[in-house]
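Hi C.,

You asked whether I'd gotten around to modeling the 240-residue construct. I have! Everything is below, sequence then structure, no commentary in between.
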Amino acid sequence: MSSRRAGRVDDGRVPHRGWAATAGLLLIALGAWGALIPFLGPYFDFAFTPDEPWQWTAARGWLSVLPGAVTVVAGIVLVGDDRRGGAALGGWLAVAAGTWLTIGPVLADPLGIGAIGTPTADSAGMRALEQLTYHELLGVVIVFLAAATLGRHGGTRTMITEAPSAERPPREHPAATAPAEPHPGRRAVVIDERDESLADTGGRHVADEPVPARSSPVHGPITADQAYRTGGQMSGRSDR
């Protein structure tokens, strides 16, 4: 019988780093997009006002460049650090950056950061796409990757060990018993009886001798001659 014990074990390493490295590369790409798209978007008519390339504003710095740069740093940490502390740090940095990308445009005016501008596309669908890819959708994707990384590599592992219980020792299987031999005394008795029978018969086995047939009893009246013979036989046996 064994007892199971569970304990938290942290060896400091990130097992199966494939996901952490992949998430880190994706975060680097998404962070670079978020930080540079306000300055490169005007080249292909995908921008917010003011739609001039490489034009710096306080709102672009706080709402795009800052969270994008933090996301790039988080991805570099996930790719370069193979320890659980590094995975947790990169994950939480990405969570903060993605959250700010999502809610920052709403808090820009109350915080006095400045207006982020308006999308410059002609159609409503393209304006919605610009709004999502600049801020809301971009932030949600970053938070998702960060949360998945924290869930896989951000905590400690649980190890379950089994140890023999001290209360009940393990049961031993009894060894298979050999079949009992015939009692030696019986074999000796049989040998003795055969020896005695051989001694009485002068070395010949009793089973080899023919068994004399018994005389059948006489039924009916007995004649005088038969009575005479029977009495003689009985007297002869008594003499013996």
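If it helps when you're writing up: The first strand starts at residue 2 and ends at 9.

Thanks,
B.
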